[in-house]
Amino acid sequence: MKSGDVVTLVSGLDPSPTEPVTFIRLVDGKGRALVRTTSGGEITVPCSLLDDGHPTSGARSRVDDVVTSRWAAEQVADQLRESQWTVLDALVSAGDRGLLDHEHEDLHGMGQDSAGKRRGELLALGLVADSGLKRVTPRERRAVVWVVTARGRAVWQHHRRGAA
Prior knowledge:
- It contains 5 helices and 7 strands; from the N terminus they run E-E-E-E-E-H-H-H-H-E-E-H.
- It has helices at residues 66-79, 82-94, 104-108, 112-124, 150-163, and strands spanning 6-10, 17-28, 32-36, 42-46, 50-51, 128-136, 142-148.
């Protein structure tokens, strides 16, 4: 991808494309890009939320090399442990509603602490994100609602295709 290319911004809450933006440049080595919106404003977004429309860029993790982005998704899928897949599966199933770490116990018997640790590992890999929303826990505390990123969905889909 080069400066001036029009790409699609994908929301972390919804993997479907939202609005076209113009890619300006990579900001740093941490996977962030500067883009210009249709209204003319400039914002910095995670590269995992950019989709260049190329059929092999399913991971959407690096806008500068779509082939290695796909390989990266494959490598991540191959490295996840069963407990991480359990958490990712639950988050994919939850869709836009997302999940609190506490909600995993009712869904698949994994306690809040274990689910939180697995979710933290998935967060570090860019597969899940804070939705920006909060819900009340059973102890009446507000907690982050976690959702799958576009990259997380791509890794999950790759895994499902391989398992089929």
